[in-house]
Amino acid sequence: MPTDTRTAPDLDVGFGQQRALKALHTALDIKASGYHVFAAGENGLGKRTVISRLLTRIAADAPTPDDWVYVHNFTDPRTPLALRLPAGQASLLQQQVNNLWQQAKKRLSQRFRSDQYQSKIEAIKNSTHQKESHAYDALNAEGKQYDLALTFRSFDNKAVFVHPSQLPTESNSDDDKQIKTPSNRKNLEKLDDSEKVNILGNENTENKDSTYGNNEYEAELNNFVQKNHMQKRLSQLTIALEQLEDEANDEIEALHRSIAQRALQPLFTPIYEQFSTHPLVVAYLEAVFDDMVTHVERIVNGDDEEFVTAVLATTPSRYAVNVIVSHTPDSGAPVSLRICQPISIYWGMSSKSPN
Q: Under a CB-based contact definition with an 8 Å cutoff, are residues 292 and 300 in contact?
């Protein structure tokens, strides 16, 4: 007799149940679905123990089922993609993508905060600003032929053509304003005759200036055709400058994509090679790469919840690999023990469609 029962072999619980064991082996050899085995007998005979040990022994030699994961569908976000991988690969893919996100975010932040990147952005903006300035200067020179000047309105910074006389000039001194205001005309009675003559003479001069200003305004109306022509030219220039800004934005976006591709490609290449035998997984990783390149600004800025890691999470939900089923490699088929399950579990489910 062994001194320690832990080293003793397991008892043959099927002793004396050869017919039952033969029936179980016959049932388990049937690979088709839809078959069930019912074990009947008195309590305490060891039915559950015999069946559990037999199933565990047979399942250990059976092939291990594949793993399944759910990932984000970048084409249709409402319909996630289900990816099938060999046993043990689901957790590995999840870990690799988590590490990939951490490294990608760190590397992109470094690239987009570097002095080299800032200098390239400033060069694009300065070039665009110079082109805009040259275009406005050329149009202003053209407007001078019609005695018109190009200026920007103070309240909306919009470019308009006006007569040179309407350009803003320096205001008069406060003393002149105080003397010329109607409320202070009563003070003339306190002045001597010579001062009255000087003040009234100034007012007459002001009236003449006002009359001259009206004549200028009438002259501007007479040149309506020329001004209308220049306003149309200004509208055309505005459209051209908007296109110039669009081109500058496209150039900046192309720069962002180029920087992101160079930064991310070394991180994705090893994972491509690791899962090269699984085309669907590689296609998903390529979609992740393209999505990161497209939304690199939102990733770097971190101002969008789709690209921000939630609490207790390591990866944003957009790039998370959700493991649904995972098995240990070479662990055999799983054996599930369910106690007191409803009868519908064994009968299956029926669906009723509306008429």
A: no
